[in-house]
Design brief:
181 residues; alpha/beta; Alpha/beta knot; seven-stranded parallel beta sheet; 7 helices; 7 strands; 35% helix; 20% strand
Length: 181
């Protein structure tokens, strides 16, 4: 097998990306303190062509050299909106008709392998702070909580890795296959 060169890959320009149909998913960052994690969410969000990133609280916003370091320009293609806090963002999402899921370990969470997003619905997922997770008030406002099963000794994963797994699940069900999961 031969690796494909970058010039052979058909990629959208930033302008074409902005005009293209998006996966009906918004990623909400609830006090994500690492600019590298914020940038990584942008980059993965671009790869899956999500609608937007909602940046809340202490999370850094573009333009930022540290965000750009991992986003590699995706902060210019993926739409983003800043909110003072994630409760404000979730309230707006509910007003706009989104189902909102916090990604958190809670009682009665839905394990990711048992979750099937449905075509025709619009979704948002809330990703929490690297130490404290999603604020309890945001969990309380959510329509549900998704949890990624973990088999090792740790009880958490890096927020940008988690966001990538969650975005892939939505893309698999809504964009990459002909049917819902």
């Amino acid at each position: 097998m031969r690796k494909i060169r970058t010039v052979e890959m058909v990629r959208l320009s930033v302008d074409d990306f902005k005009k293209a149909d998006k996966m009906p998913l918004i990623v909400v960052l609830d006090d994500v303190r690492s600019m590298h994690n914020v940038g990584s969410v942008f980059r993965t969000g671009d790869a899956f062509r999500i609608e937007a990133v909602y940046i809340c609280g202490i999370s850094a916003v573009p333009p930022s050299a540290e965000i750009h370091k991992t986003a590699l320009g995706a902060e210019d293609s993926v739409r983003w909106v800043y909110f003072n806090n994630a409760c404000e963002a979730v309230g707006k999402l509910h007003e706009d008709g989104y189902e909102v899921y916090s990604v958190e370990q809670v009682e009665h969470s839905t394990k990711l392998q048992h979750f099937s997003p449905m075509k025709g619905k619009r979704y948002a997922v809330v990703m929490g702070n690297e130490v404290k997770g999603v604020h309890q008030e945001v969990v309380d406002m959510s329509d549900g909580c998704l949890e990624i099963p973990q088999l090792g000794t740790k009880h958490s994963m890096n927020v940008s890795v988690t966001a990538g797994i969650i975005m892939y699940k939505f893309a698999e069900c809504l964009m990459l296959t002909g049917d819902n999961c």
